[in-house]
Amino acid sequence: MYNKILLALLVLLIIPSVTLAAWWNPFSWSRSIPVTNEAATSTLTDSQQADILMADLIDETSKNIDLGHQLEDNQKQIASLEQKLSIEVTAYNQLLASSQQLKSQYDADLNEVTKNCNDALIKNLNRPVSAPTIYLPSAPSSIHCTSNTLMSGQTTYTDCN
């Protein structure tokens, strides 16, 4: 029973694919090439054929001349564009060289400024630190200052009331 179901399933899957396949067309298997009679198509006289050939030759010659002019114009445009490109490449190379020179000058100036700032900073760090001098005007008689002095960090406070 299992074999019959499997066979039926295969037949159901294969038959549609064969009938719908593009290559499965038995009517197209034996096509013959149609035969034409060249003697029947040639009804023009030799002079008419020569005239037709001469007209075709003139048309093709004029097309070739037009294409030659277009080719010359295109070659001129190419030469002009190549000249502009060489000018732009030269200008670009000059700008690039100038940019590199300015960058090297900037780097040198930056190094000098950095060195000067570091030297000044080191000089200021190495000098002795003294307490700041503060000028206080003479105290009015109503304010009485005691000798109690408070020290907080590097700042000195005198107690007055």
Describe the structure.
The longest helix has 81 residues, at 46-126. With 161 residues, the protein is mostly helical. Helices cover 65% and strands 9% of the residues. The N and C termini lie far apart (120 Å). It contains three helices and two strands, in the order H-H-H-E-E. The model has no long low-confidence stretch (mean pLDDT 78).
Terminal-residue CA separation: 120 Å
Query: Largest beta sheet, briefly?
Result: 2 strands, antiparallel
Oligomeric state of the chains present here: single chain
Count of discrete alpha- or pi-helical segments spanning 4 or more residues: 3
**Category by helix and strand content:** mainly alpha
Order of helices and strands: HHHEE
Q: Percentage of helical residues?
A: 55-70%
The average pLDDT is 78
Strand order of the largest sheet: 1-2
* Topology, number of strands: 2
Q: What radius of gyration results from the CA coordinates? A: 53 Å
Poorly predicted segments = none
Strand content: 5-15%
Q: Name the overall outline.
A: elongated
